[in-house]
Amino acid sequence: MVGEIDREVSCALWNPATREVKPLHLPIPVATIHDSPVFVFGLDPLAYDYKVVYFHINNLCEHYASVYSCSRDLWRIFKPKILYFTDVKHTFGTAYLNGTYYWLLTGGRHSNYTILLFDFGSEMFKEIEGPGHQSIDTNMLGLMSVDSSIAILNLNLCTVFAYDIWVMIQPGVWNKLVTFQCFFRIKSCYDSSLILATKDSQPVSYDVRTNKKRHLGFQHPGLRKDAEYDGGCGVFYYKESLVKIKRREDEDLDH
């Protein structure tokens, strides 16, 4: 969980299965942050250790990254060898796959896309070739995980409210999975279904393969009528895990 309290960025880990909450103290002062910081969470499948990745750019356009290990309760700070990009595109749900997290980045030109990935095992960043603008339009909205593959949600300008989903076969090779029309705000993705928010704040799932919609039946008085827009509500990918996020010493302190 990431948010602002008294204009300061706060971060905490929450495991609903074990009912644990662990506040994380950021290793780099918030005052040095120039662009909005990026936080992601994933599992190191080799060590079976949950980790938090936090990177940002300071006022000198220098990249800093920090990796937090739940098992060691430590932050590792380093400067990754990645180029400066002006925009980290939105991720719909999660872009974590098999121990690696992916981001879609863009530079000063809309056609200048690249894929940045982070390996949770080696704790290394790597830059790979992004989608070529010859085959994919330049209005890419962000990454998502579709049927255990990394995919791009792209705005199709040929049809009103139309989108394309392109699946990465290998670095630099993308195949179009589907083109579909959608009149609701896309919030997240789960397997082959998109999670949408209607104008009256009702969550709906839409299967892009079968073209079927299903109301999820969730209603809450706290949802505002503008929940379809950014900031109105959020939908998050959750996979139950019984791995503890606190060390035994932390549990003793709680008592």
What this model shows, in words?
- With 255 residues, the chain is mostly beta strands.
- It folds into three domains: 1-80, no CATH class; 84-181, no CATH class; 184-255, no CATH class.
- It is built from one helix and 21 strands.
- It has one helix spanning 248-254, and strands spanning 2-5, 8-15, 20-24, 38-44, 49-57, 63-69, 74-78, 87-88, 90-92, 96-97, 100-106, 113-119, 124-129, 140-146, 149-156, 162-170, 173-181, 185-190, 193-197, 203-207, 212-215.
- The strands form five sheets. Strands 8, 10, 11, 12 and 13 form a five-stranded antiparallel beta sheet that branches. Strands 9-14-15-16-17 form a five-stranded mixed beta sheet, with no helix packed on it.
- Strand 6 (63-69) and strand 7 (74-78) form a beta hairpin.
- The radius of gyration is 19 Å and the shape is globular.
- It starts with a strand and ends with a helix.
- This is F-box associated beta-propeller type 1 domain-containing protein.
- Residues 10-245 form the F-box associated beta-propeller type domain.
Task: Looking at this protein, list some descriptive labels.
255 residues, mainly beta, five-stranded antiparallel sheet, five-stranded mixed sheet, 1 helix, 21 strands, 3% helix, globular, F-box associated beta-propeller type 1 domain-containing protein, SCF_F-box_component, F-box-assoc_dom_typ1, F-box-assoc_interact_dom
